[in-house]
Each structure stands twice: as structure tokens, then as C-alpha cells.
Amino acid sequence: MADEAIRSAFMEIQGRMIETTGKLKQVQNQMRNKETEKKRAYLTLEELKQLSDDTNTYKSIGRTFILEPKSALMEEQEGKLKDSEAAISSLQTSKEYLEKQMAEIETNLRELLQQDPALARQIMSMSM
């Protein structure tokens, strides 16, 4: 009976670990995307700063280019930059939380395997 309880606890911990790992990878991918978006906005902003104020600037909308004032394009890029920074900050907080959860799950798993060395041997034989 105790053996069955340990097995079900192991399965629960394993499920939580898989779920947390998936969430962590998703957050890391979102952070990478936001970093790319932030870099693109920064580089575009730097290029716009080099242009004179009377230069014709165009905004891409799908396959169409629309004439926009330089100031409007700069404001848009600054907004994208700020939005990306805020999103990255939020995602960093989520990432730290998930990493703490992962460490807790690993600790629980370690404790469970120390309680039942037979289960640890069985898991090791399954992975080989």
C-alpha cells in the first residue's frame, strides 16, 4: 500500500515537473521574442534619429507603404520599445517564479527517491 502511495506521489511530481518545464520554455521563448522586438524598435529609432525632419518617411502596412511624418514613426517605435521592456520585466518575474517552482519540485523528487531506494533503482533501470 505504501509502495502504491509512493508511486502515485512520484507520478504527480513527474507531471508537475513536465508542466513547469513546458511553462518555463514558453516564457523563455516569449522573452526571446520580446528581446528581438525591442532590438528592432531600438535600431529603427536610431536610424530615424539620423534622418532630417523634412525627409519623407513611410510606414509599412502589409504590402502597402503609407507616408507618415518622422515624429509619428519615432513615437511608435518609442512605444514599442517601452512595451517590450515592460513585457520583458513581467516575463522575467514569471521566469523567476517558475524556476523557484522547478527547484521545489526537484527537492520533492529527491526526497521521495531517498525515502524509497527501490523506486530510484526501478526508475534508473527504466531509463537505460
UniProtKB/TrEMBL annotation:
Family assignment from sequence similarity: Belongs to the prefoldin subunit beta family.
Starting at the broadest rank, the lineage of the source organism is:
Eukaryota, Viridiplantae, Streptophyta, Embryophyta, Tracheophyta
Q: Name one GO biological process term.
A: protein folding
Alphabetically sorted, this entry's keywords are: Chaperone, Coiled coil
Positions in coiled-coil regions: 17-115
Q: Tell me the Pfam families matching this sequence.
A: Prefoldin_2
Protein name stated in the entry: Prefolding complex chaperone subunit
Please give the start and end residues of each transmembrane region: none
